[in-house]
């Protein structure tokens, strides 16, 4: 589990691409301070497992499903990535619950600066917008952000100067692809609601007949 509070920006050192999977090595500093084999590190919002590490970098495998569902296949040596270690029990929780299990990707369709804030309009794929509500939480490239507006399949988010400077989102613009993870609780609530609707015998006619409507 992560918080969406990015600890540092790392740099892709090596990328070994296979037919449907890959392995990457990332230069880092902060996330290596207490790293162990098997630890989870969020790379642009994707939970990856550390398979080896040195004093200046770590490696991780990217399985075929992750390659298909995320933007990691677009990375190249030299690419900058958001990094966050899994939250420790008892640690401070400054963002929201982020699993590192990306729902899909989005495309930035507009970027506008308004005084000290930078607004991004992001076009989502499939039905991802169903889990988004104004003032709700969302993780974009692993960064915990607030949804300010939802219009059909497009959401609007805003970056304060600190987030713009300390995450890879600040360097991204119109046309760029980002990883999207919607709010965990929203997914559970919608799933449960759909289940209740399918199994329930309640209807408007039933409520009217029994004096509830």
Keywords, please?
globular; 6-stranded antiparallel β-barrel; Elongation Factor Tu (Ef-tu), domain 3; 213 residues; 39% strand; 2 domains; alpha+beta; Riboflavin_synthase-like_b-brl
Please characterize this protein's 3D structure:
The radius of gyration is 19 Å and the shape is globular. The mean pLDDT is 91. It is an alpha+beta fold and 213 residues long. The strands form two sheets. Strands 1-2-5-4-3-6 form a six-stranded antiparallel barrel. A six-stranded antiparallel β-barrel has the order 7-8-11-10-9-12. It is built from four helices and twelve strands, in the order βββββαββββββαβαα. The N and C termini lie far apart (43 Å).
Report a brief summary of the structure.
This protein has helices spanning 64-69, 161-166, 184-199, 204-209, and strands at residues 8-17, 22-27, 40-43, 46-53, 57-62, 80-85, 104-114, 117-124, 137-140, 143-151, 154-159, 177-182. The protein has 213 residues and is α+β, with helices and mostly antiparallel strands. A six-stranded antiparallel barrel has the order 1-2-5-4-3-6. A six-stranded antiparallel β-barrel has the order 7-8-11-10-9-12.
DSSP, total strands: 12
Overall 3D form:
globular
> Mean pLDDT, nearest integer?
91
Count of the domains? 2
How is the main sheet built? 6 strands, antiparallel, barrel
């Amino acid at each position: 589990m992560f918080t969406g509070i990015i600890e540092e920006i790392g740099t892709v050192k090596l990328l070994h691409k296979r037919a449907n999977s890959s392995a990457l090595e990332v230069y880092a500093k902060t996330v290596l301070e207490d790293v162990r084999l098997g630890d989870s590190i969020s790379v642009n919002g994707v939970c990856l497992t550390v398979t080896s590490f040195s004093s200046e970098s770590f490696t991780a495998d990217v399985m075929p499903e992750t390659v298909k569902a995320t933007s990691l296949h677009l990375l190249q040596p030299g690419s900058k990535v958001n990094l966050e270690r899994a939250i420790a029990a008892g640690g401070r929780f400054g963002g929201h619950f982020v699993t590192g299990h990306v729902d899909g990707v989005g495309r930035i369709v507009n970027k506008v600066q308004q005084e000290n804030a930078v607004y991004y309009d992001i076009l989502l794929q499939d039905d991802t917008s169903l889990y988004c509500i104004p003032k709700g939480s969302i993780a974009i490239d692993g960064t915990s952000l607030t949804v300010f507006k939802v219009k059909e399949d497009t959401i609007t988010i805003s970056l304060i100067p600190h987030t713009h400077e300390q995450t890879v989102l600040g360097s991204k613009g119109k046309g760029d692809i980002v990883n999207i993870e919607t709010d965990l609780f929203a997914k559970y609530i919608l799933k449960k609601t759909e289940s209740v609707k399918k199994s329930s015998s309640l209807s408007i006619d039933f409520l009217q007949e029994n004096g509830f409507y």
